[in-house]
Amino acid sequence: MSNAVVKIENLVKRYNELIALDHFSLEIEEGEIFGLLGPNGSGKTTTINCLLSLLSYDKGTVELFGTKMAPDNYEVKKNIGIVMQNVAVFEELTVYENIDYFCGLYVSDKEQRAKLVEEAIGFVGLEEFKKFYPKKLSGGLLRRLNIACGIAHKPKLIIFDEPTVAVDPQSRNKILEGIVKLNEQGATVIYTSHYMEEVEQICTRIAIMDKGKCRAIGTNSELKKLIRNTETISIEVVKPSDEDMKEIASLPHAYEAVYEDSKLVVRYSGGKHNLIRLMQLLSEKQYDMGRVYSEIPTLNDVFLEITGTALRDSE
Ligand code: ADP
Ligand code: MG
Fold it and tell me: Which residues surround ligand 1 with Cβ inside 6 Å?
């Protein structure tokens, strides 16, 4: 692969006894929005910090834009924009001054910088808040400022570490749209999140992380093909008898039937008339049915099958 913007090989990072990254490898091509999906503590932020040489690691190699990354590799750093998980801005500087400061780390020409700062402000929609100090901004606006500081110098690779945690829906949508737009303008993006819906929505490829390991990599549809689940049917119904549950679980293509949250949940692998068959069986046995849902697999199902635990549990 010649266009790899990021190449991580066999990265191992230990915090004393704890192995935060366990032989983690990854390649990201130019033009991707690459998602790192994993629950809290799976090693996403550690990966980013090692990638940028902000953190030393025990083993492995990191190459960015085809050169080995090192703490003093400023040529490479110029081409990278970072939007960290924790908002990092100066309280004593205004919105404009903050963005100008961060942009100034890479762009010394004043005229050019003024243009870039204005563009970044427009991009995140902070035009009306230029003269505001950070403490006057809501959480969502603060996140947008954090983003503007990271992208103003127009880096080729932009890293977003959980940029939508604790953000209102309006800012959240604006952030996701903004990331897609930056990518369309040519930036390669790394996007970490524990929200599978977001990753599903915007990422070209996704790595599923769990306990410092990369458990699977692929496009959204490739990942879903890795698992046996093709359909999950849930029906609001009183709890069927054990005997009936057995019969349900042995319907064609069904591989699991459970009763949870006042619903019968049946998981299938393949097959065409699963819903009709199941409803027929239940009505023959004279169960009163409430609402019925049929769902195709989500990344949560992928995570569940691959790791044995639900991604949702970690939120
Ligand atoms: P994520 O970003 O996916 O939530 P992190 O990369 O922050 O995960 O953490 C990975 C693991 O490393 C977790 O078990 C976390 O508790 C541990 N960890 C992170 N930073 C430190 C640190 N400075 N000291 C000790 N353990 C740490
Ligand atoms: Mg993190």
Answer: 15, 18, 20, 38, 40-46
